[in-house]
Amino acid sequence: xxxxxxxxxxxxxxxxxxxxxxxxxxxxxxxxxxxxxxxxxxxxxxxxxxxxxxxxxxxxxxxxxxxxxxxxxxxxxxxxxxxxxxxxxxxxxxxxxxxxxxxxxxxxxxxxxxxxxxxxxxxxxxxxxxxxxxxxxxxxxxxxxxxxxxxxxxxxxxxxxxxxxxxxxxxxxxxxxxxxxxxxxxxxx
Amino acid sequence: xxxxxxxxxxxxxxxxxxxxxxxxxxxxxxxxxxxxxxxxxxxxxxxxxxxxxxxxxxxxxxxxxxxxxxxxxxxxxxxxxxxxxxxxxxxxxxxxxxxxxxxxxxxxxxxxxxxxxxxxxxxxxxxxxxxxxxxxxxxxxxxxxxxxxxxxxxxxxxxxxxxxxxxxxxxxxxxxxxxxxxxxxxxxxxxxxxxxxxxxxxxxxxxxxxxxxxxx
Lengths: 189, 216
Hints:
homodimer; two-stranded parallel ribbon
């Protein structure tokens, strides 16, 4: 029941937008992108991904088993509500320029500490088992943010390993912030 | 495949815990509650024991069917998938998207910005303004969204996961003295929700760990 192509409002650098771009790429969906120069908060993009999953069910972004689905959502929400909102653009503006780096690093490290522990029991090749899931769509953009804020990733070997595997996948590459229509020349891959 | 009753780790005042308490009440589920005091002893959520159970060091956490789930929305979605009646998400995918969008706006867009650990970091003198700002800007957006989704409740006329997120956030708004006059739809829905039994039995003022001075 489509009326024209889906339209995605996206900002090249927004980790939330990147998650959705990955989902659209994995599901081989044709869409129109309208670039916007502001970022939207937190996990509303998870609502979009769950909608895509329900209406375009292949390839899967959530496992079939409810317990594994719970793990995928737990990790996704940890990333989307537990970390990202605390270091997004509008919040950083409020904490003030001199505090931004420490604030963002603190948000990311404490979230990654928890995630690294959780992954010990859920991870296979990817965050939950061996199939790419919504959790992985949330992970890669958050690791990119961690790099931007110079967070030391040595304490997080599982996060690093999974991220490396994800970045080798085509869907993660075509959707990457460095390759978007609105990527500034100096940041372009 | 249950081994004993589910166990909910909860703090009376935690809005995230309240969401899950509402869900368990609506689904008529029998469970055990273990209360975790977020302020006593430096915060019981930081104990080694609790951290081993939930590395996120947060409430709520639900031990159920042999697994432990953190993150309130992940818990609610699991309950919905394994104990599907009564529904907490509509059947139609577009309405489900609206329910999730509103839930996430509340659960990721507002609450994390005014939770205990963040408020500690902004410092005592800034806390009220910071929290009010987070809540107002979120409620501005939500009031607008509700114009197109709301019926009796947030999405249409059935209670959904979005409503489970709304009532606790309005309670927080009250705590932080946010003026709710600009949000008539939010206020109306909240009032209807608080009349429902599941929202009452799960209310912060009626929990095993509610201090006497806050008890209803």
